[in-house]
Amino acid sequence: MAKTLEKVDVVTVGVGWTGGIIAAECAKAGLKVVGLERGKERGTADFQQVHDEYRYAIRYELMQDLSKETITFRNNRKQEALPMRQMGSFLLGENLGGSGTHWNGQTWRFLPYDFEIKSMTEKKYGANKLSGDYSLQDWGITYEELEPYFDKFEKTAGISGEVKNPFEGKRANQYPTPPMIKTPLLQKFEKATTNLGYTPFMLPSANLSEPYKNPDGEQINACQYCGFCERFGCEYGAKTSPEITVVPTAKKTGNYEIRFQANVVEILKDGNKVTGVKYVDRISGEEFIQPAEAVVLTSYVLNNAKLLMVSKIGEQYDPATGRGTLGKNYCYQILPGATGFFDEQMNVFMGAGSLGMSIDDWNGDNFDHSKVDFIHGANISLTQTGTRPILSNPVPPDTPAWGADFKKASIHNYTRTLGVGGQGASMPHKENYMSLDSAYKDAYGVPLLKLTYNFTDQDRALHMFITKKAEEVMKEMGAKTVVPGNPLTDYDIVPYQTTHNTGGTIMGASPENSVVNNYLQHWNAENLFAVGAGNFAHNSGYNPTGTVGALAYRCAEGVIKYSKNGGSLV
């Protein structure tokens, strides 16, 4: 029998970026907050060792244990969904900091177009630009309304960047710290894109260009350009993460407690309110009920949706009828691009997760889509993230797959290869969604989340278009051989792509088309909030974390307002 604990003001499920932000803001406001983290405690000191690509990038030391919790996957409803038994297409974080520990640090604001994409697209191109199979919708909030929260997240994280992107939304302030070093490789990209008539700019980066103390008094150090960001924790405390910013801020208030190895299995509901959550201690196996005045789901996209489903809160989306919102609008990303092989040797060893230059000329609605059969676009970048030897083995396409010639080409091209890539936006389709699996359960007897997803005609057309643009840039950079990316076929969950999963708990202006309102407050339970990339009604041509951070600050404001006044916030 589960033991009932003392009631608190706020309980968060997961302690990564969103859980840390909610905790810091609510604790500063005087609310008693408990964070339930199903992983273990960790921090900068745990990463102060020799870089180990095999341990972290191949064996996934920082990631979720899929023998305990995973998802099942299929491309369409006619297929049988099977469990993802090892990390592949995306890398699910676990332990304190979540994916905010092993991320690269690219920190974008979504474009104004993104938040009103349905209205703006129909106004410019008509209601039939995309077929009725695409469930496009506005987010229930505008860029202008969200801008102060973007600003707050950037100041908390100390983001390094420059205001040179002519297409971004209006900003109240400059970036807190200057951009990172513009290396010779980035200068090559800058020259080529300028020659082609574009406006290149440095990536906004959470790998900081200089030491910085944020408004809460937390110290973030300067990047050492070691090239070990994605899949790794930072031993310098220079890659902004929750465990060096918002989590310490919350702890200093005296109003915050984290419980580790606490796996939440159910949200408890009574009428139009939730009463708390039930969790299992992963070490002892004991069950606990944590009552709370407000519950905030702050775990990863997939788990937020799963918890709502197993707790039967909200109506599950049904692709056959179009009814329901929970699990709807799952989106991912596409990765068009081109690889260039050069004669000269380059320093590709050093770098950082967010060291790069970009152009946005082909992103959002920054160009006329009248004569193309897709909407939106992609941010196109050259990044210098550090070429590590195990996972990096580029060879030209005519190279034998093994033998002496393969080895020779591999060694020769290791430091003579660059890639120009795009992060392509993903539009919601009626057949791409999340649900519960009736055949498979996790280690605690809870049904696994089932993902039904495939690339669409929109994806394929956009991928082909952006690949050609990337190929043009690479040729202008002077590559002797340019290899464009292969056209999209069916989505495969095996090779790594991005950990940019979105949708399933989408936000909006009405309960008819969304799960939560623009404070991320659940339409069916006024003291339940769900925040993260699951709120995105579609996915943009950027990394999601900057927009997730902004939504988390918006949500924190909502939780505090609710704690004072109760009721619906919109």
Automatic annotation (TrEMBL):
Record keywords: FAD, Flavoprotein, Oxidoreductase
GO molecular function: flavin adenine dinucleotide binding; oxidoreductase activity, acting on CH-OH group of donors
Residue stretches in coiled coil: none
SUPFAM superfamilies the record matches: FAD-linked reductases, C-terminal domain, FAD/NAD(P)-binding domain
Residue ranges occupied by any Glucose-methanol-choline oxidoreductase C-terminal domain in the UniProt entry: 428-552
Segments forming domain Glucose-methanol-choline oxidoreductase N-terminal: 219-329
Cross-referenced InterPro entries: FAD/NAD-bd_sf, GMC_OxRdtase_N, GMC_OxRtase_C
Top-level taxon of the source organism: Bacteria
Family designation: Belongs to the GMC oxidoreductase family.
Protein name as annotated: GMC family oxidoreductase
Taxonomic source organism: Domibacillus mangrovi
UniProt lineage: Bacteria, Bacillati, Bacillota, Bacilli, Bacillales
